[in-house]
Amino acid sequence: MNKKQIENLLSQMTLDEKIDQLLQLAAAFYSDTAEEKTGPMSELELTQEAINNAGTTLGVSGAKEAKRVQDQYLKNNRLNIPLILMADIIHGFRTIFPIPLALGCSFDPTVAEAVASISALEASVSGLHVTFSPMVDLVRDPRWGRVLESTGEDSFLNATLAAAFVKGYQGDDLKNDLTKIAACVKHFAAYGAPIGGRDYNTVNMSERELRQNYLPGYKAAIDAGAKLVMTSFNLIDGIPATANRWLLRDVLRNEFGFKGVVISDWGAVKETIPHGVSATEKEAARLALVSGVDIEMMTSCYNHSLEELIKEGIISEELVDESVLRILTLKNDLGLFENPYRGANEERESETILSVDHRKAARDIAKRSIVLLKNNNILPLQANDKVAIVGPGASSNDVLGAWSWQGKQEESVSLADGAKKCSKNVVIGKEKFDYFEPSEKAIEEAISLAHQSEKVVLALGEPEWMSGEAASRSDIRLPKAQIGLFKAIKSVNQNVIVTTYNGRPLDLSDVDEAEAIIVAWFPGTEAGNALADVLWGSFNPSARLSMSFPESVGQVPIYYNVNNTGRPYESAPNEKYVSKYLDCSNYAKYPFGFGLSYTSYDYNNMELSQNRMNKDETILVSITVQNVGKMAGEETVQLYLQDIVAEVARPVKELKAFKKVWLEPSESKKVTFEIDEKLLRYVHSDKTARSDDGQFKVMIGGNSRDLLEKVFDYRN
Ligand code: GLC
Predict the structure, then answer these.
(1) Which residue, 5, 158, 483, 608, has most beta carbons within 10 Å?
(2) Which ligand 1 atom sits nearest the alpha carbon of residue 88?
(3) Residue 184 CA: which ligand 1 atom is closest?
(4) Which is the closest atom of ligand 1 to the Cα of 186?
């Protein structure tokens, strides 16, 4: 349909039909099992008419079921307006990829695009039209459970990957490419900065900080064409994001130019009542609609109150029309009027879901997301090494992560399974090993196997439920029983390699004495194969941390791009009155951008093409990187800038670019970056982003700590 036809369709709709289009209901409302409409369903107190005509649904999946639900919906819809089927496809649909925090460690937008593309294909043939992804909330606090869903602490890396995710999900021709689905960027905005790292808690930051570090990820997704934006549960400067007219109209619509659909996060419209900015559902409905929320997910404030609000002249029907028009336009962009089933196809579904190619991609991407944090020359394992694999993660299939919806643990590969393919000299504990209270038998078996082996892979970490939504932790260490196990194993065998499955950066100080530490995150369906590939060296680890690992939770929030402060510790480390702790360092144990390889890389000959630059010029910064080890590998060369003196205090460094380079043993390559005026811009006190004259420090290295540096002058 064209714009005129959509407007004509809108003009035929009754007010009730229009209001129903603004409602999103979960799959249970469309279930064909005659289950009692209990729980949330009964709380919503909706008429059958409203349920029949709700404009969109979330959580339906499977080609056959999707078609059934669409058929049932169209049968009940007077104007033959199709239903949109949405769901959370965060890092894979049925083939599960590493959690986004791990994908961030790949430092590779092609990885994010590939994950999104395969996810879109599997979801589309299964009948889905929209995914509530990418989640681009910047996070500097590992206590927050949803850190797993983000790509970490840096706004440049977040923005780069956000655009790649959207491209992978939507492609270039969403209407006709039935292998693609629409992307919904979330959670707008700054949901990743709750005070205390406690989910749903207050977010408190200046507008300048919000614009400088937190908004770029959402903006990048919107500039890449994301069709929807989801509002967040939290406050923005005292006003819930879902009722925040400045955020949703002034910034999102007018500044960012977003023309797509805004959907509330689950219940967020009605939650303006407990937030204390609405007294009633009617007030909640008015606030959200006036602020610019088009779809209300899983509460019925709109459905119960909008007609009355219009009749009383409190809001105009045009506001409803504006939202309905955006929803009809989205349905049209998805081609649903012509083809309500879109990509749903049982035959294609069975061919593509969890295909060999998808598993291969999942294994390859998982390898590139696994971070080697420590290695006292004990890795890679050799085929003739006698290796014991013990601990809760050894045979675990709890490797998918908390947002893996259609992923099935039983379809995943455990470390034990992966290891057996790499070596015949592997012994694996038979006893089930609990994450928190392992049985005496399991512990004794682990110690005995460790005693009789040359090396021990001690697989530790978090179970899936310890991260994700509503899963914040105040203590980010490994569970006590696992620390005890580490000590017991270490006492019988010094050669301990710790691997972790984890949904957040952890305080790993308790296993600091390990000979090697590998962070596998939740690697997804191919977990065990990918981790074994890294352990036995068929893959040389190349991932770099997307988020700092603290020495202690007491340092949190801790991140690499800090301000210098007026009393920097570095300038007077022996002074009392400088910015420091009495009981731990100021620094991350493993900083942003850090990761080891089975080889090592030397950085030399840093050069600038010139030492001065004006607005229309660029400076070329080059560095020679050499592989000085025995194994070929991929290095991520990172470029950081510091604006030494500016109108506001600028961080001591900020990531501005990165390049991946493959190097054979002894091979050197010259890596060159181009600095232009855009890279020098920052948000000023007047909230606009622009560059200033002054001195800049440019730094290059393989992580955010060990860097070579030069200085140049910029004149506007
Ligand atoms: C959840 C999450 C959001 C998700 C939505 C639908 O509460 O906050 O990320 O997309 O509900 O499942």
Answers:
(1) 158
(2) 10
(3) 10
(4) 9
Q: Whose CA is nearest to atom 1 of ligand 1?
A: 266
Which structure tokens are listed for 620? 């070329």
Same domain, 464 and 319: no
What is the average pLDDT across 207-215? 98
Judgement on whether residues 396 and 530 belong to the same structural domain of the protein: yes
Measured CA to CA, the distance from residue 312 to residue 291 in angstroms comes to 19
The reply to whether 95 and 164 lie within a common domain is: yes
Is the distance from the beta carbon of residue 188 to the nearest atom of ligand 1 less than 6 Å?
Answer: no
* Strand arrangement, sheet containing 694-701: 612-614, 707-715, 694-701, 633-643, 654-663
Is the CB of 469 inside a 6 Å radius of any atom of ligand 1? yes
* Helix (H/G/I), strand (E/B), else coil: 548: coil
Domain ends where: 529, 544, 559? Answer: 544
**Residue 31 burial by CB count (10 A; 0-12/13-18/19+): exposed, middle or buried?**
middle
Q: Is residue 8 part of a domain?
A: no
Nearest atom of ligand 1 to the alpha carbon of 149: 9
- Which residues are CB-contacts of 295 (< 8 A; sequence separation ≥ 6)? 22, 23, 24, 55, 56, 261, 262, 263, 264, 323, 327
Task: Examine the domain organization and report whether 539 and 607 are in the same domain.
Answer: no
Nearest to 674 by CA among 617, 624, 601: 617
Euclidean distance between the first and final Cα of the chain, in Å?
49
Do 56 and 148 fall within a single domain?
A: yes
- Report the residue among 84, 89, 132, 296 best suited for mutation to probe ligand 1: largest number of ligand atoms under 8 A from its CB: 132
Measured in Å, residue 256 CA sits from the centre of ligand 1 at 23
pLDDT recorded at residue 40? 62
Q: Give tens-digit pLDDT for 91-106.
A: 999 999 999 999 999 9
Q: Is the pLDDT of residue 36 over 70?
A: no
Can you give the residue range of the structural domain that contains 101? 17-348
CATH number at residue 706: 2.60.40.10
Question: 324 in a domain, yes or no?
Answer: yes
Residues 334 and 359 in one domain: no
Q: Which residue in the list 137, 265, 507, 643 is annotated as catalytic?
A: 265
For residue 143, give every residue at least 6 positions away whose Cβ sits within 8 Å of its Cβ, in sequence order, or none: 196, 197, 198, 472, 473, 474, 476, 504, 553, 556
Q: What is the pLDDT of residues 494-528, one digit of tens each?
A: 999 999 999 999 999 999 999 999 999 999 999 99
Q: How confident is the model at residue 236 (pLDDT cuts 50, 70, 90)?
A: very high
Cα 522–523–528 angle (5° rounding)? 115
CA distances 691 to 154, 242, 677, 694, 695, Å, are: 20, 33, 7, 9, 11
Q: How far apart are CA 594 and CA 546, in angstroms?
A: 8
Residues in the chain: 716
- 3-state SS assignment for residue 166: helix
Q: What is the largest CA-CA distance in the chain?
A: 81
Does ligand 1 lie within 6 Å of residue 650's CB atom? no
What's the confidence (pLDDT) of residue 43?
A: 81
Residues 386 and 454 sit within 8 Å (Cβ to Cβ): yes
265 catalytic per annotation: yes
428 and 287 within one domain: no
The β-bridge partners of 182 are 130
